[in-house]
């Protein structure tokens, strides 16, 4: 009985490890908003790939309400655009322009 449980546990662990190592979508990434206590209205938004490579960075001179769903959706759209071009882009004020529309 102990052997069966041990074999089953090892099989389950091996199966979950093989699933975790395969990436279905390599175009995903993440964004980070950096701010400072001394200058709360100056925010830096950085977009990264899953491999932690910086794709785009912009400094915004206004407070970003990152908990707002519209802002999150806008940042996710910009992230998708930046990940599709696959190269680092200089500060183009994309975030400022996109958030001003809302």
TrEMBL record:
Print the keywords alphabetically: Signal
What name goes with this protein? DUF4907 domain-containing protein
Which residues, if any, are the signal sequence? Answer: 1-20
């Amino acid at each position: 009985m102990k052997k069966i449980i041990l074999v089953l546990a090892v099989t389950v662990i091996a199966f979950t490890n093989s699933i975790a190592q395969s990436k279905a979508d390599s175009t995903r990434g993440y964004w980070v908003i950096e701010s400072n206590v001394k200058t709360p209205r100056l925010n830096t938004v950085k977009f990264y790939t899953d491999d932690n490579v910086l794709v785009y960075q912009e400094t915004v001179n206004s407070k970003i309400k990152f908990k707002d769903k519209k802002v999150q959706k806008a940042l996710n759209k910009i992230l998708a655009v930046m990940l599709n071009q696959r190269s680092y882009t200089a500060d183009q004020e994309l975030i400022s322009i996109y958030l001003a529309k809302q």
